[in-house]
Structures are given as C-alpha cells and as structure tokens.
Design brief:
- By secondary structure, this protein is α+β, with helices and mostly antiparallel strands.
- The chain has 2 helices and 4 strands; from the N terminus they run βαββαβ.
- The radius of gyration is 13 Å and the shape is globular.
C-alpha cells in the first residue's frame, strides 16, 4: 500500500535498458523515490515500479522527455473489461 501522498509509477526503458539500470542504481541517492519492484532479467531490467509523490513524478517526466531513454506513467490496475 502506498504511503500517504505517494503513488506508484512505472518507469520503462525505450531502448536497450542501460538508462533504466543507471536510474535504478541512482535511486539510493533519491530519498523521495522508493523502488517497489524491478521487472525483467536481472542483468537487463526493462521496467521499474516506483513509489513517489506527484511533483517528483512530474520532474522525472520532464527529465526523461529530454533524454528520450526512459518513460514514466502512473501504475494502474489491469482490468479484463475496460
């Protein structure tokens, strides 16, 4: 369950995953972001689920837009009938 004021987001690589691995490695220095789960092969993850506040997510989105290597989106439950 997310902490009050935070939501879960999906961060995924648009390329080979090197940028995502670097992003994950840098998370210990980002106290506003909590890594929830890494998806993909251990040596080449393609997706990370993070928990953070909306302002931090917006800042990440702006940073990612400039690099074109990562994307972030809200983590939404999947439903068979949407």
């Amino acid at each position: 369950m997310p902490n009050q004021g935070t939501n879960r987001y999906i961060v995924h690589a648009t390329g080979d995953g090197t940028a995502l691995a670097e992003f994950i490695a840098g998370l210990p220095s980002q106290p506003a972001i909590r890594l929830v789960e890494v998806i993909g092969p251990h040596d080449r993850p393609h997706t990370a689920v993070i928990e953070t506040d909306a302002a931090t997510a917006l800042q990440l989105q702006e940073n990612f837009r400039h690099s074109n290597k990562l994307m972030i989106e809200p983590d939404r439950p999947l439903s068979l009938f949407q």
